[in-house]
Amino acid sequence: MLKKLTRAPAALLAxxxxxxxxxxxxxxxxxxxxxxxxxxxxxxMLQNADFSxxxxxxxxxxxxxxxxxxVYRGLTMQAAGDAEDPNAxxxxxxxxxxxxxxxxLTWTYTLKDGLKFDNGDPITSTELAFGISRAxxxxxxxxxxxxKNTIAAPEDYLxxxxxxxxxxxxxxxxxxxxxxxxxxxxxxxxxxxQPNAVPFPVGTGAGDEFINDIVASGPYTxxxxxxxxxxxxxxxxxxxxxxxxxxxxxPDAWQFEIGLDGATIDERLIAxxxxxxxxxxxxxxxxxxxxxxxxxxxxxxxxxxxxxxTYMGMDTTEAPFDKLEVRQAMNYAIDRTSxxxxxxxxxxxxxxxxxxxxxxxxHKDFDLYPSExxxxxxxxxxxxLASVGLEDGFSFTLDIRSQPIMQAQAESxxxxxxxxxxxxxLNVIDTSTYYETIGTPSxxxxxxxxxxxxxxxxxxxxxxxxxxxxxxxxxxxxxxxxLFDDPEINARIDEIRAMTDLxxxxxxxxxxxxxxxxxxxxxxxxxxPSVFLPGENIANYIPNTSMTDxxxxxLKDPSAG
Length: 561
What we know:
The protein is about 25% helix and about 15% strand. It contains 15 helices and 21 strands. Helix 11 links the parallel strand 15 and strand 16. The longest helix has 16 residues, at about 500-515.
């Protein structure tokens, strides 16, 4: 008999966050989206930081999730970025979405024929069950928490390497896989679209085996990996496009050039010389925006609305942030207009007063800590501090990423809080290890600037709960970085998750956002829309602030560059 978990631990707040977590909607720009890609050639990705992990059991963020779609497949996935509904969850290796039992506790999937790994070995239900069970490994399973949060397992199950086969996953034959859930979860198809719900050959992947290697099931496989410098993907000759309705896989190869300065990337894309006309990158730097008005660049510019929120998480278990009044004072004191300026102005940043961004289903418009012009209200903040004996202020350490915009944001916070006699010491952490660090409670300091995106775009169910559910706090891969644990909040999460009417649930999540912010476990800072400049030869590039679908991008002329 399986023991019913109250809720399994959550996993790494990985780079969901480059901003964060994980999925999003389609932008409304046209640009390269109107051009027809042609098969062949190499696309270059120019980027500042390395991916968190090649192993999808470990990584979980917008940047690496997009990479995973090129090399891994699962039972389901988010639809293509150019689909009529890019937010939909669609079948991938499964013939259809799952069939749920009447009580909602059992979900069954049937695999397609012709599925293979990059070495030609067949992919059956056994390999899928093994790959999915890796999420329970205490060292490896620091990626998406949703498998552990929904699939039933004994409390002492520690993954396939230590505990063997997963008792909550059945494989009655090679094409059938059955999942037994902790409790009914109407969005379970979305859970299996998470990056760690992918197959691996039985017995592989223990320890650090996949730190610098992969076993591909998608259209590309790894040819070269020099950590911090270069990743090259080439076609997986055993990927059968007839089994894949989403990935178009136009280019013959992908080359990820890592460790480049943001300004250098922008200069290369503007010049567009040689292979750089076949390049894409993350969002442009604020200093570059004015140059994009040039007529020879304007047609290439793409924009994407904000599906993520940047926020400051505070350790609610330690003084001074264990006091509600102190956390509320932080929300009043922050100057969001200054933060907007520090982040590049209104094209790249909008003040946030809620956890759920405007673009995400379920957003409710409210501001519990208002100030004129979003400039902060230091007088109200000081009143709150004085009410708990902190009228003379205090000091705390703020963890930030080693990127210029993040440091500018932190300096803005320093200046705003100095007005209420709060001294902020900055602890700068390398981007490649940042989310693992703040996701380890013993390593995070008093507070951290981070971000969050919905793990799937059809609802707000993954937007707020991972940040405040006290039952998902874990020693590694922790998403509740404030260590916030309130019984009423935990109970309300369960009530809304049980709703089968997703429209009603989304409305409830908006109200829940307001309920959470009354307790102020964090300070919403910004929603960050983005501007992108793909190379002139790039086609069908539809950027997303959470996860751009690389599998549909191609070149107009593969011989160019």
